Amino acid sequence: MEVNPPPPHIRPNSSHSTPGDGAMTVPVSGTLGEAAMIVLKRRDFSRWQYSEKLPDAALCKAVEELRCGLFDVDLGGQLFKKRIGRAGCGKSGGYRTLISARIGQRYVFLHGYAKNERANITPEERKAMQFAGKALLNLEALDLAKALRCGILLEVRCD
């Protein structure tokens, strides 16, 4: 299995690692160690996104709207349901995404589906997504770098 190299903004931490130990660090910006905003997606979400031909730019727009408080439902446990428009159909005929978010810091796209495929997720699915989302939001820098390096999580570039 081929492992993708980490994104360019995740680099070896020379002050806390020895050569070749693979320690990684996520850059920090702001004051008092406030983490830089990062947008991620699960590998399964990425496969679904590719099959639907949904561009990363649409995910970035959804994150910006979520950051501004524009979302459909707060499902609790830092899990949000956010509509994303489909080309030619708008939001009402588009997609529904489940995003685990620590607003302003880290966003993880967990699940997506077309509105015409299903109305809502089940309570059991909601609990599972809350659990998974919380775990991904709480990853420390080293574990986050490993998840990115292994392809479990992928970064969404919002430039």
CA radius of gyration is 16 Å
Mean pLDDT: 81
* Main sheet specs: 6 strands, mixed
Q: What is the H-and-E element order?
A: EEEHHEEEEHHE
Give an overview in words.
The protein is of the alpha+beta class. The chain has helices at residues 43-51, 56-67, 123-137, 141-150, and strands spanning 11-12, 24-25, 38-42, 73-76, 79-86, 90-102, 106-114, 153-155. The radius of gyration is 16 Å and the shape is globular. Mean pLDDT is 81; it is low at 1-34.
SSE diagram, text form:
Layout: E1 11-12, E2 24-25, E3 38-42, H1 43-51, H2 56-67, E4 73-76, E5 79-86, E6 90-102, E7 106-114, H3 123-137, H4 141-150, E8 153-155
Parallel strand pairs: 3-7
Antiparallel strand pairs: 1-2, 3-8, 4-5, 5-6, 6-7
Short description:
The chain has helices at residues 43-51, 56-67, 123-137, 141-150, and strands at 11-12, 24-25, 38-42, 73-76, 79-86, 90-102, 106-114, 153-155. It is an alpha+beta fold and 159 residues long.
Characteristic key phrases:
single chain; alpha+beta; two-stranded antiparallel sheet; 8 strands; globular
